[in-house]
Amino acid sequence: MKFSIGLLFGLWMSPLMAGDQPNILFIIADDASRDSFGAYGCQYVKTPGFDRIAREGVLFTQAYNCNPKCAPARACLLTGRYSWQLEEACNHNPFLSEKWKFYPYLLEKHGYAIGFTGKGWGPGIWNAEDAGKSRKADNPAGHPWNQLQKKPPYKGINSIDYAANFEAFLKATPENKPFCFWLGTKEPHRGYGLDNWKLDGRDLADVVVPEYYPDNETIRGDLADYAIEVEWYDKHIAQALKHLEAHGKLENTLIIATSDHGMPFPRVKGQIYDDGFHVPFAVRWGDRIKRGRMVTDFVTFPDLAPTLLEVTGVPLDDQMTGRSFLPQLVAADSGRLDAKRDHTLLGKERHDIGRTDGELLSVAYPSRALRNDQYLYIRNFESHRWPVGNPEYGLLNCDDSPTKTFLTNRAHDPAEKQWYDMSFGKRPKQQLFDMQNDPDCVEDLAGDPALAETVNKLWLQLKTELKAQGDPRVLGEGEIFDYYPNCRIDRQQKLYGKPDYDPVQIFQEKFGNQSPD
Predict the structure, then answer these.
(1) Is there a single domain that holds both residue 138 and residue 47?
(2) Over the chain, what is the mean pLDDT?
(3) So what's the pLDDT on residue 382?
(4) Nearest to 282 by CA among 29, 20, 23, 22
(5) Please, which of 181, 199, 399, 483 could form a disulfide with 190 given CB 3.0 to 4.6 Å?
(6) pTM (whole model) above 0.70
């Protein structure tokens, strides 16, 4: 290690001992890719707010979401657990169990004012009791502050004024009370106003098209429309920073800016490829973080909750299995600070409905992956299933978009079917990508005899670590993820033409007293 743990401990404990608990502002986009931010080299999307946090704090280059879909990724953030340790919450749209503890409410028990605006945890059904109180919890992310609205500039942008609601929260919070606020924009989630880029005067020549798409005006236009919404997220970052400055709270507020997963495009959102799970992550904390640093240690969403509890001096909960990255925040150096943080684990189960396997409906596409500096190794456990959902049901683990329509219209065109297959086709049991030379993950090297030993070593490492974490999928008990019910029961009944379909009853008949909700 490049830093002294003893010195680090001394530097950190002194402010807490003086009763100087920091405020926390957690800012999260809905579906914004890492490569869409200027701090990571993007030029066609302008993100001065995020870039300021990176410039005045620390930028993480190896930050990951553990599971690239809204509900499971956010559950990892809030609970401090890996996705496969979250039972029903590993899936999208679950009935969320009352057993999980969420860091905002743990902080509230220790004197913090908590709130959120926009999108907190979700989608799914959450009915748990709020920390023993008689009323129900508002959301795992905190108590809602959504009353202030503003007219958006273009169709597709939500009317919630996120930054203004944050300021309203600041005004309502007693001066001597620390706060923890979750600012979750609903952008750049779909849908977008078609050709908003024309109204905004954008030049499609500036857009960068990933290698897994054909380069044409349809896709460039879709990416340009997406860029407008990323910039809307970023404007609220900049405004939130101004509000903190105006209230004299900027320097004692730990500010984290990120996104739950990559952009809502084919082969990105919801998929186990780098652009889906490699997220933007920048942290500012006044003079407690040395400015302008770039850290290459691997951090993941389960690490957030234990970090925030350690930062605030609140005891860690036994539920949490992530590791605090406080040492990475307060260190003086850049680069790889902890040699052991050299990889991360990722995975998914069921994200969306519309995938079947024989008589089973709404089954998962179970995958696990290991990402290190050199490679991404992926294990697809049920590779005979459709990874993005069955084509006859609309490939539902991919948001509708001009890009999706363009690709699906080429499904039977021999000259262009490769683009469709890359996003929607079936995948082999194992995949391997060289992240140094192929960051877009287009050349699968798993079948290369020269890399057979590498593949075997990575699978052994992945399997060993997942077993140690109690992952049901590698312990032979993974089918339970297929049965945890998706809470959109009416939608499934309509989709499958089965008005009596009841996934809750099916779960209880198979697993008895294990309640899905």
Answers:
(1) yes
(2) 94
(3) 98
(4) 29
(5) 399
(6) yes
